[in-house]
Amino acid sequence: MEFFRYKSALNFMGKSKIAIAFSITLVLLSYAILAVKGFNYGIDFAGGTIVQVKYDKEAPIDKIRERLQGNKLFDNASITEFGSPNEIVIRMKTTTGSVTQDIGDVTREALKGTGNFEIRRVDIVGPKVGSELREKGIMSMLLAIAGILIYVAFRFEWRFAVASIVALIHDVSIASGFVALFGIDVNLDVLAALLTLLGYSLNDTIIVFDRIREGIVTSKKTTSLQEIINESITRTLSRTTLTSLTTFFVIFTLFMFGGEIIHPFAFTMLIGIVIGTYSSIFVASPILLWFGFDVKKYHEKLAEKAKREAEKNRMREQFESGVM
Amino acid sequence: MKLNYRIVIFALALVFGIVFSVPSLLQTEGGKKITLGLDLQGGLHMLLGVKTDEAIKSRIKSVAASIKHYAERNDILIDNLTFDDESVSFEVLDSDEVKSFDEFLKKIDGAQISQEGSVIHITFSPKEIKKIKQLAIDQAIETIRNRLDQFGLSEPLVAKQGKDKILVELAGIKTPQEEQRARELISRAAKLELMAVDEERNARVYNMSPADAAEYGDVILADAKNPKIKYLVHEIPILDGSMLTGANVGFDQNNRPVIDFKLNAEGADIFGDFTGKNVGKRLAIVLDGKVFSAPNINERIGGGAGQISGNYTVLEAKDLAIALRSGALLAPIYLMEKRSVGPSLGADSIKASMVALFGGFALVIIFMVVYYRMAGVIANIALIANLFLLLAVMSLFGATLTLPGMAGIVLTVGMAVDANVIISERIRELIYEGKSMHKAIEEGYANAMSAILDANITTLIAAVVLYVYGTGAIKGFAITMSIGILASMLTAILGTHGIYDMLEDKIRKSKDYKFWFGIKG
Question: Hey, is the C-beta of A218 within 8 angstroms of any chain B C-beta?
Answer without folding.
Answer: no
